[in-house]
Amino acid sequence: MKIQQVFDGSFQTLFWVWNLTFISIVYLGILPMIGVPLVRATIDGIIPLEFSLTLAATSAVPTVCTVIGAGRFSKQPLQLMRWFYGVEAPLFLLCLLRLFLLRELTPASYQIIATIALCIAAFSVEMLYGYLGKKENFQNISDSQTSHNKQPIFLNSIGEKRSAWLQLGCHSLMLVVGIWAATLLLYYAVPVALFTLYGFFTVVIEFFKFTWVSAFWDIFRYGGWVWGLIWIPLSFIFFGLTCSLFVVMPSLYGFLYIHSGRKIWQSFAAQYGKNKALIGSLGVIAAWLAIFSALQQQPQVAALKMLATPPANDTVRQTLLAKSDMIRSGLVNAYLSPYRYLSTVGENNHIYEIYKNSLNWPDGAAKTVQNSYNVLMSPFLYLGSSADVKKAEKLYGEFFDTELQKGDTEAVKHAVQSTSNREEAKAGLLNVNQEKVWLQSQEVTVKENGDWADVQLYEVYKNQTPNLQEVFYYFSLPESAAVTGVWLGDTGDLNKRFVFTVSPRGAAQQVYNQQLVQRVDPALVEQISPKQYRLRAFPIPPKREFTQTEEPTEMHLWLTYKVMRQPQGWAMPVLAEKRNIFWNQNTRRTIAGKEVKYSGKEAREIWLPPFLPAVAQQPLTAQQAVLPGGNIISAKPLADANYALLQGKKLAVILDTSRSMAAQKKEVKETFEWLKTNAAGKNAVDLYVASAAGMPPKFVEDVRNFDAAKVIFYGTIQLKDMLQQFAQLRDDKSYDTVFLVSDRHSYELSDDRKPKVSISAPLWTVHLGGLPSGYDDATLKAIQDSGGGVATDMKEAMQRVATTAASGKSTVSVVDGYVWSYAKTPQPKKTAKSAAVAELKDTGNEGFKPIAARQLITALSKQKSSNQLTQLDAMHALAKNFKVVTPYSSMIVLVNDAQREQLKQAEAKSDRFDREVESGKEELTKPNNPLNVSGVPEPEEWLLLAVGAIGLLAVFLRQRRAKLIG
Questions:
Q1: Omega of the bond prior to 539 within 30 degrees of 0, cis?
Q2: Contact in structure between 637 and 452 (CB atoms under 8 Å)
Q3: What whole-number distance in Å separates Cα of residue 401 and Cα of residue 387?
Q4: Burial degree of 329 (CB within 10 A; 0-12, 13-18, 19+)
Q5: Which is nearest to 891 in space by CA: 481, 560, 543, 551?
Q6: 98/55 Cα distance (integer angstroms)
Q7: Residues 345/321, Cβ–Cβ less than 8 Å
Q8: Terminal Cα-to-Cα distance of the chain (whole angstroms)
Q9: Are the C-beta atoms of residues 852 and 866 closer than 8 Å to each other?
């Protein structure tokens, strides 16, 4: 009897001391100190809601279990222990694991976690209600059923028989879970037991050395007596009890679950017979194991194997394309493996380190223990290596012809949000169409000047997140338009806004990205194709719900450009892509002095109308501007009847066969039918079919022999690689014009390689389905230097080529309804020395000169020069003089002298025109691998870590006291 009383007292003491200690720490320490800030941070979006809910659940589990234990089992010490080790401890541990270790769950890990949660719930039901079938015909069902025979309310609706079958199924799984979890915990319980025992004696020895006294004294000196007297003892008690409870948990947890499963099975068998009980249990376990086996097949194994070698023929390509879904699943799983798995199998070495280095086991024995642990933990371990992340990203781009972060944005974002990883401030691929910065207002003003107009776009941005954000636009303007200014401001006061500087494209990009890292205000406008521009502004001030601040709460941006009149009116910027920015029906819009209201889908999709009607409708007239150095640019309106088509020419057509072109199959077929009907009979048209890795490109001597319907679009090919393939196949063939037929290819897959591709004929890129975001500088140079251009259909491209040739050698381009021509007047010797000063003595048509300067730069880019840097400097000098953006000169807004000094230094470098491809790919911070260690602290080192934590607390209190006194 006395032994029974000792056990009862021990059980009561363990349950109440641990729970009351934990509850005291939570409700007297954690919640008052961090509870309110946590709620505010969650509302502000700094902390994910899932994190806060899991933390709340972790705090609530001991509280709820304590209340239930007090109400139902206060006089049953043995049941109190069953409740603690069967419900509270595993549920508390599960919350901790979900909070600190488990990130994005895979189907296999979902099954394990869901099964454990189900078994905990089943065990709690068994304790509170006993067997759910009939009870009057048998005895000894459960020790906890003496007064709790009523069925739970949520099971009344399914009936007694179904409840009994459901309970049998859950408790059959409990046998599996009990064995699995107990075995897994045993790997840690043995070392913890030895460490605890050794640590106890070490603590006693170190205690009498009094090395901890100075740290404690600092805590008392700097106002930390509450911590010194209450929280530190409570923490040591809590830590000690937790270690001691953890030591016995594997055996008790396994015993309780196996015992509970056996009792329910016996109860069911007594009511329905052993055969049914056996069939039911084995059926549930077999089904669970079958599902487990199916979910264990990680998709990246097959995907990486299939793409290990580039396909060598169309049959293999078609086979791989048919398995696209499986390949996508595998590559995404490999890329996100640091978020979905705790570790790779090869890098999981912590059990080996514990048993070999801390317990001094032989190397072979420690490896055997580690291998057996890996088998049990297989749902949480990745089958592969950490190098698979980069490999999968590369293969995804090569197979799907787009960046992984762009192709599977939602999957990547979900994985990132499952951890505390912060996204970069830079607006990347994960921010495409994200609603983080609200366009509060937008105003467009147009000042007409006959055949051309000055247009100003003024926007106000309001951040909807607690973090600094970047606004990012890809947009297009007519090829003859000229961007003439960009400004930033904290308010709408024009006198206080920050002005722009025209800078070499490489220097401007370098300084902008540096300032983005340093989180200082810059803005950048770049031209990345004959029509495409990139606009970026940072930082949009963060939103604060609770914090009062005098800092700016919004950002104002002004963009101006000059544009020629077209039959539809004045062209507006056409949006290609946006990042972070959004607008809706609440956005205030004023266009050309009139308030514009959009509703529904239009309010969220329309940025600007494509054209604004011109007020003055007089006939178009010729324009001319005389620029420095005697350069004359003329613009002559062109009637529809003046356009021509090519005749008697030798033409080359390059066909892009990358995977994204499959979406343009119809357009490809129509393009080649048009070529056969309208061009092939009057011109010699050769075809070059580009190909991704694995198969060689093909040459078709006459385009009329080509069947576009049989093309298999596969893989990815960069435009400059297509030009290289063309150069290799053509040998000594010469052409009058080269047309490259592609789509809105993925600019993000471009790189900074600069292959030497010499194309003497004008190069025209025809983009079916719309213009791309931009080009890498090597491709842009090939187009500009050859005198080519861009178009969205073959007829437009050929008409512009033919009309340009028919307009004379002085013609720079035929674009936007005008023929642009260039002439140079001889300069007297006395003014040749000061060409930079002679900026025209005539004052006529001053407003047209920036547009003319853009055309002059286009003309100069076609001229061959032995010193490329000198030629680029000359074109940049023109852009700087007339304050325009060009493919070689960008506009950057700077706000302080330090930034201006950085820009000055960047502009002096020889690589000032070398611009890098802005892939937009975000460098995600990989979560730590909790199962990989370089070494395990010795037992006595744990004590030093604890003393160190006390010391850090003392330093924190000292600093806080110093701030208060200051």
A1: yes
A2: no
A3: 21
A4: middle
A5: 560
A6: 10
A7: no
A8: 65
A9: no
Tokens encoding 479: 């090829």
Alpha carbons 433 and 791: distance in angstroms, whole number:
26
d(CA 452, CA 448): 6
Question: What pairs with residue 471 in β-bridges?
Answer: 537
Q: How many CB atoms lie within 10 A of CB 825?
A: 9
Write out the two tokens for 421.
């990883």
DSSP string, 452-478: EEEEEEEEEEEE-SSS-EEEEEEEE--
Q: Which pLDDT score, from 0 to 100, does residue 244 have?
A: 53
* Amino acid present at 231: W
> Residue 648: how many CB atoms within 10 A of its CB?
8
Backbone angles phi, psi at 834, to 5 degrees: -125, 50
- E-strand ranges in 744-888 read 763-767, 789-791, 811-815, 818-824
Which parts of 434-556 fold into alpha helices (H)?
A: 505-518
Distance CA(907)–CA(915), nearest Å, equals: 12
- Supply the Cα-derived Rg of the chain in whole angstroms: 36
- Which ranges of 131-231 would DSSP assign to H, the alpha helix? 153-156, 160-207, 213-221, 225-226
**What pLDDT sits at residue 843?**
44
Whether this prediction's pTM lies above 0.85 is answered by no
Amino acid at 560: T
- The lowest-confidence range among 46-55, 322-331, 686-695 is 46-55
Contact (Cβ atoms closer than 8 angstroms) between residue 522 and residue 515: yes
CA pair distance 948, 953, nearest whole angstrom: 9
Distance of CA 189 to the CA centre of its chain: 39
Beta-strand relationship, 482-489 and 811-815? unpaired
Contact indicator for 392, 404 with CB cutoff of 8 Å: yes
CA gap 169, 908 in Å, rounded: 76
Q: How many CB atoms lie within 10 A of CB 179?
A: 14
What are the angstrom distances between the C-alpha of 819 and each of 327, 623, 626, 670, 954? Answer: 50, 10, 17, 29, 78
In the 3-class helix/strand/coil scheme, how is 62-90 assigned residue by residue? Answer: HHHHHHHHHHHCCCCHHHHHHHHHHHHHH
pLDDT at 188: 80
Give residue 896's region: left, alpha or beta (phi > 0; psi -120 to 50).
Answer: beta
Q: Which two tokens stand for residue 86?
A: 């069967």
Q: pLDDT tens digit string along 189-241?
A: 777 766 666 666 666 666 566 665 665 566 555 555 455 555 555 555 555 55
CA distance 334 to 308: 14
pLDDT of residue 210: 60
Q: What is the widest separation between alpha-carbon atoms in the chain?
A: 123
CB atoms within 10 A of CB 908: 9
CA atoms within 13 A on the CB side of 827: 20
Residues 662, 663, 666, 672, CA torsion sign: negative
Integer Cα distance of 10 and 667 in angstroms: 81
Cα angle, residue 343 at apex, residues 337 and 349 outer, rounded to 5°: 160
Could you please report the per-residue DSSP string of 708-765?
A: GGG----S---HHHHHHHHHHHHTT---SEEEEEE-S--GGG-----------S-EEE
Region 330-351: mean pLDDT is 93
Question: Which residues, at least 6 apart from 341, have a Cβ–Cβ distance to it below 8 Å?
Answer: 106, 380, 381, 382
Give the CA distances from residue 87 to residues 11, 22, 62, 123, 176, in Å, rounded to whole numbers and listed in that order: 15, 16, 10, 7, 17
- State how far the Cα of 930 lies from the Cα of 103, in Å rounded to an integer: 12
Tokens matching residue 650: 């030798």
